[in-house]
Amino acid sequence: MLFSGLPVLLLFASLAYVIPWGAWWLRWGIVAILAAILVLGMIVLPPIRYRVFWYAISSTEIDIQHGIIFIKRSVVPMHRVQNLRTERGPMADHYQMTNLKIRTAAGSVGISGLGRIEADDLCDRISQLSDIADDV
Amino acid sequence: MSEAPAIHYQHGVVVPDTRLHPIYLVIETAKTVRSAVPFLVVTILGGAPWWVNTILVVMIMVIAIAQWHVKKYSVISGVLRLHSGLVNRSVRVVPITRITALEAYRSLTQRLVGVWGLKVQSPGDRNGSAVVLGCLSGSRLDQLRTALETGRSPEVTQPGQPEHDHEPSTIQRYLAWRRTSSLKHAPDVIAVLSTRDMLIATISNNTIPLIFAGALVVWFRFSEYVPSKAADFMQENVEPRGIVAVLVALVVIAIVSGVILGALRLTRFTLTRDGDVLRNSRGLLGKQSATIPVNRIQAVRIVEGFWRMLIGYCILQVEVAGIGPANTNQRMLFPLLKTARAEAFIRRALPELPWPTEPLLQIPQRVHRRYLTLPLEYGAGFTLLFLLLPGWWKWLAVLPLPLGLALGLARPREARWQVDDHSVLFRWRRLTTRNTVIAYRTGVQSTEWSSSPWKARAHVAGFKMRFSSGRIAKIRYMAEDDALMLLHVIGRRDPGLDDPVAPVPLSSVAGPPPAVRAAAAAR
Question: What DSSP element (H or E) covers B234?
Fold first, then answer.
């Protein structure tokens, strides 16, 4: 939320500063509303996301549900997994967090915000379970 | 879906490091000249001394020769490697067991100089090919295709060598088809596109409306850039007769252009079943041929466009890994046939593809009204937009809502699905096109169930399945229980059976699997 919302907020703040359109209170009012939405989103959304997101691994499939209002549940058959990729930036690295991407020939599904050890375990487990003949 | 037969590839060097045909130099020089056009324009128009232009031309030639020199392909121990790049060296590595399709093609230039191009497709190359080899002589093409299709050197299947099997191998049939060998048993020609059908296909596709729209914009906004002879003809002979005459002339131009483009692309489209591969060949000036291993096909799609549906025609496409949404021509099974004949046609071309044995299931009546929501919302939005238009254009506002209503009523009536132990069938309408997908139940890459508070309250959910081509099949609204059942039965196979792709019998799937639900919240 912070990384996706902050550039928009900065853009609007720059426009409000540079372009003399409308009354000053209107320009900066829009920026203030955007900032409020961003802060509210940062406070409210993560706990909700944390509550509604889940994933499940069985010997035959990976089951992932995400979304708050529009909920999507993806099932990837284990034998369709082509490769796994873990990603972490400097901030995620600091907090021992990792994002996991499970790739199939048709695209990928992601599990974000895993602990580093849990992500490594998950990678090992999926690698072992998916190590069977592929027929794409 | 049957498991891809294992290719017992020959260890060691099957095709040694080989350069492309020297004619590649001409093509590469032309490419380099094209990219150097801005420099040449500056130097020639800028009055630079002759030696500057000479040095530029020599540099272009040297670059082309150097690129040809470093570009080499090989097939060694079951792996295709392509070395290329002058400054940025790159090595493309494709295990031949991962190759899903080979497409040999010939442009007009290649045809004139007698060389072929070869595109090698593998999973994950949705917008292109893993490897493209631009210039191969006929014998090199045969050698490489033999190596890629059989994993062995061509000596194994050279013409004249005594055959151990009674049935000729696929590659022997291919060599016969390329006329570099003779064979008693010719491939089975499934169908050849007639000239009449080719004309119907070109007239009923989207090309002509697009060309017409382009011609309208060009004539009314950028007529000063139209070639002088054409502009003079239009201004002297057509424009004095009024706006209707101009429109008719533009329609004629669009139809003629569309037919020419279609003829170049589709003339003599021929589909052949050649053992365990399907081949198609097409083209008027340039010739293209695609090879698709049957065991790589995961689904067949029947597409009925608006105009084609009115006259009872459809096109057939296949879903194959590596041939994605951008590869329209390569995924074509057949460009036009009567919809009533589609099932018989598919059963002949792909007798392995299972069809659901039970009748297709409809969407429950209580779900139908959900289909009205989205088209009516879009209809209302476009109505408001059109009301803002000036003059008579605002009368366009009467169209969106009735069209949205028609779409909202048609979609649930046409949506169908069925699933059994081996196959799954989905039928749904997008905007103007009706799609029917018949797929192996285990051939789906992933499935997706979607919901929202409003859908959940009405016990409705959406369902989508993805193929390795990157394309999807979906039913936007269906009964929630059905969607949940599909989520867990499509794409699964029984881990307990020896056959790794044996599907789980539907009777054994009573609901979501006893998965180890490690909720993220519990962490």
Answer: none
Tens place of pLDDT for every residue, chain A, 136 residues? Answer: 666 778 888 888 888 887 777 788 888 888 899 889 888 888 888 888 888 889 999 888 899 998 888 889 999 988 888 777 778 788 888 888 888 888 888 788 888 888 888 888 888 888 888 764 455 5
| Residue B501 structure tokens | 């792709």
Q: How far apart are CA B106 and CA B122, in angstroms?
A: 21
Give the chain B residue nearest A112 (alpha carbons): B520
CA angle B61, B66, B71 (to 5 degrees): 130
The architecture CATH gives domain A53-129:
Roll (2.30)
Q: What is the C-alpha separation between B285 and B377, in angstroms, rounded?
A: 47
Report whether B180 contacts B139 (CB < 8 A).
yes
- Mark B290-317 as b/e (b = at least 16 C-beta within 10 Å): bbbbbbbbbbbbbbbbebbbeeebbbbb
Distance in angstroms (rounded) separating the CA atoms of residues B290 and B104: 6
Which residue carries 């859908």 as its tokens?
B455
Instruction: Answer yes or no: is the ipTM higher than 0.85.
Output: no
Rounded distance, CA B439 to CA A79, Å? 17
> How near does any CA of chain B get to the CA of A92, in Å?
17
- Which residues from chain B sit within 8 angstroms of residue A82, using beta carbons? 123-124
Return the residue in A54, A73, A121 with the most chain B beta carbons within 10 A, the one to mutate for interface testing.
Answer: A73
Query: How far does Cα B63 stand from its chain's mean position?
Result: 34
- Note whether A105 contacts B445, CB cutoff 8 Å: yes
SS percent in chain B: helix, strand, coil, step 5:
45, 25, 30
Sort out which chain A residues have CB atoms less than 8 A from B296's CB and list them.
Answer: 136
Residues of B with CB below 8 A from A102's CB?
Answer: none
Contact B483, B461 (CB under 8 A): yes
Return the closest-CA partner of residue B258 out of B201, B309, B305. B201
* Domain range annotation of chain A: 2-50, 53-129
Contacts of B514 in chain A (CB under 8 A): 58
The rounded radius of gyration (Å) of the Cα atoms in chain B is 27
Contact assessment for residue B270 and residue B282, using Cβ atoms and an 8 Å cutoff: yes
Q: pTM of the prediction?
A: 0.71
CA–CA distances in Å: residue A41 to residues A1, A38, B147, B377, B500: 7, 5, 57, 27, 46
Site from B126, B276, B445 to mutate, A interface, most A CB atoms within 10 angstroms: B445
For the purposes of burial, counting CB atoms within 10 Å of the CB of B402, is it exposed (0-12), middle (13-18) or buried (19 or more)? exposed
Q: Element (H or E) spanning B462, and its range? A: strand B460-466
